[in-house]
Amino acid sequence: MIQYTRIISRNVSFAAFSVYLPLLISACSFQQYTPKTIDPVANAARFERKDPASAKFQQYLAANGYAENRLPLQQWGVDDLIYCALYFHPSLDVARAQWRLTESAEAISAERPVPVINGHLANSNRANHDISPFAFGLSIDIPIETANKRDLRIENARHLTQAAKLETAQMAWQLRNQVIQSLNEYQFNQQQINLFSDEESHRQEIVAMYQKRVNIGAASNVELSTAILQLQTTTSELNAKKHNKLVLLAKLANSLGLPLAKVEAMHFVVDTDMQKVVDFQTDHLQTAALLNRLDIRIALERYAAAEAKLKLEIAKQYPDLVISPGYAYEFGDRIWSLGLSGLLTLLNKNKLGIAQATQLREVEATQFEALQSKVIAEAIIANTELIQAQQTLNNQQNLREQQQLSTRRMEHKFSAGEIDRLELSFNRLENIAADKNVALAQFQLKTAMNQLDNALQKPVSVLQNNQKSSISIEDLSFKN
């Protein structure tokens, strides 16, 4: 019976060993290096395959509140293009990768010191034949951190991670600013092309009328030459605007992170609704900027990281301890031991490290104060420029209304035979000039509004109406 019990016990032990051995081997396995080469040709081909009509991008839009009956989009407004940039632009992927890198650094900061195993084996020449010729020993060094250093490392790394996360949102805001400005420039260029085309048509009519008058002796060659020169100037400016159209479209494509061919096929919605600008109070602007600006929050996180760094350096005044229990067999004697060791940091008390961390905190503090002053100044300047742009637009619109009234009077006179077609054509040119001035004022107003948006990092329309923005740039920048 005893023998049978021993056999069962041996079989159970063998079974347990066969089960746990693979687990122990897998636990001790090492990760293997996997090469990952960069193929510029493949990257270029992957960029050319980016498509705003792709199924994945449609899923992204649907996940952000777009109705399925609107997809795929046929008309692209400002918000739609911002979603496009947040999804396709590679610079946001770079910011996200850097954020994930700081997250891994935060995980590393939480690791505890690893114990160290020491061993030795010796053999003597047996000069004294009464001792064993072998000696071996085994000990383990168990490090113990003092003064809460691990938590301080985690605190420092956590603030740096949060700063990197906010830098991702900052990149998203920069993309928003680039998309809006590029779209405004492109649409303004389109307006100019249309206006210069109308002007060219009128000047061609004027040249033709002067040519007829010269032929019958009712006008001089000087008047005809002047009209031809004005036509050539208009045609030259129109051609310059047409050539610049492709450049501006390429600039918009770069802001969206899409190939130019894809952007050329997109139809953009023209925003003709110019909202009345409100003159914000200075304290209101300062509050909005200081609460919303991401670079302010990044600076605060970096200052907090510097504070944690200083606390860590102060904690390093206190030495870490290493407990070293061990066992040794030395030439027939069996010896156990218990060691205790630590760096002699009490001699210099980490004065240089503390001084450096203190200076780093001072640098972050002064940088924050300088940034705060810069943000307040940018908000005030941007608001002033916005108010001036609104006043300029109002003045140009009033002048255009007066010019339109004058044109209507001239048309009535022409119908009554009081003036000729040449005089009416010159009056219509004045009307086109007024339209040009209004288009320029509208572009300047949109630019100023975008600058104030960027200075506050909150849309002006949202700030005026005290409503929630349709796009949460900060939330969208963290996911794709």
Quick gist of this model?
The chain contains 14 helices and six strands. It is α+β, with helices and mostly antiparallel strands and 480 residues long. The chain has a single domain, classed as Outer membrane efflux proteins (OEP), CATH 1.20.1600.
What does this structure look like?
The protein is α+β, with helices and mostly antiparallel strands and 480 residues long. It has one domain (62-124, 132-476): Outer membrane efflux proteins (OEP), CATH 1.20.1600. It contains 14 helices and six strands.
Characteristics:
Outer membrane efflux proteins (OEP); four-stranded antiparallel sheet; two-stranded parallel ribbon; alpha+beta; 480 residues; 68% helix
Chain-wise SSE layout:
Elements lengths: L1 H26 L12 H9 L6 H9 L11 E2 L1 H11 L1 H20 L6 E8 L10 E11 L4 H68 L4 H36 L3 H5 L2 E2 L13 H11 L1 H22 L5 E10 L2 E10 L8 H65 L5 H36 L3 H6 L7 H4 L4
Parallel strand pairs: 1-4
Antiparallel strand pairs: 2-3, 3-5, 5-6
Helix pairs in contact: 4-6, 5-6, 6-7, 6-10, 6-12, 9-11, 10-11, 11-12
CATH architecture: Up-down Bundle
What is the beta-strand fraction?
5-15%
Q: Can you tell me the overall shape?
A: elongated
SSE-based structural type: alpha+beta
- Separation of termini? 69 Å
Q: What kind of sheet is the major sheet?
A: 4 strands, antiparallel
Could you say what the CATH topology is called? Outer membrane efflux proteins (OEP)
